[in-house]
Write a structure and sequence with these properties.
With about 200 residues, this protein is mainly α. It has eight helices and no strands.
Length: about 200
């Protein structure tokens, strides 16, 4: 991809070429927000806000087969097989097949987007650490152990990348959970309330 790895210009670069590169990219790794760990984490995510938004939307579609698949199967049984209506059963079966195929395709697409976001976040942090290390030079070992710097560059950077995957998956799962709860509520209010209450308890247990 043309924007991988992300461009991290040096602190004092004012050349036209560097400015042109910064202007041509949607993200800007030249001025990280290091006022607090939370702000830096938010800054990392903000650099890829559009990619993460698309990946979250794709994740919602990816979870669609698991969310509405049982409902469609129930409709096939109730409206098709039980009523001996072959055309209705086949029509709903084709709808179920389409949902599964689209969900599988979105799974591949989401994985592609997340790998991209993961690598950009990971290597972006690595390059930021490298830039700061180069800037500080021989002063750095007096302030921070070398092992800690290597740990941030090689280990923590991967965790920043992993956050993008966890975030989009969580958004997709949350919306799928709400869809399932809505379907059950439309069928049985009591059962829907049980799902709304029990599912978070099971996740947190």
């Amino acid at each position: 991809m043309h924007d991988f790895p992300p461009v991290v210009p040096d602190f004092h670069s004012t050349s036209p070429a560097a400015a042109s590169r910064r202007g041509s990219l949607a993200r800007d790794f030249s001025r990280p927000n290091t006022r607090s760990p939370g702000r830096f984490l938010g800054w990392i995510l903000w650099q890829q806000a559009s990619t993460l938004a698309i990946a979250s939307l794709v994740a919602v579609i990816e979870f669609a087969p698991g969310a509405i698949g049982p409902f469609l199967i129930g409709r096939i049984v109730d409206d098709g097989i039980t009523q001996h209506d072959l055309s209705t059963a086949l029509g709903l079966a084709l709808v179920l097949l389409a949902v599964i195929v689209v969900g599988a395709g979105c799974g591949v697409l989401r994985h592609t987007l997340i790998v991209r976001a993961w690598l950009v976040a990971m290597y972006g942090v690595m390059q930021l650490v490298t830039r700061k290390t180069t800037q500080m030079g021989h002063v750095l070992p007096r302030r921070t152990p070398t092992g800690e710097i290597l740990s941030v560059s090689s280990g923590d950077s991967d965790q920043f990348g992993a956050l993008t995957e966890v975030l989009t998956r969580a958004i997709g799962a949350l919306i799928a959970y709400l869809v399932v709860a809505g379907i059950i509520l439309s069928t049985s209010v009591q059962m829907g309330i049980v799902v709304l209450v029990a599912a978070p308890v099971l996740v947190l247990a």
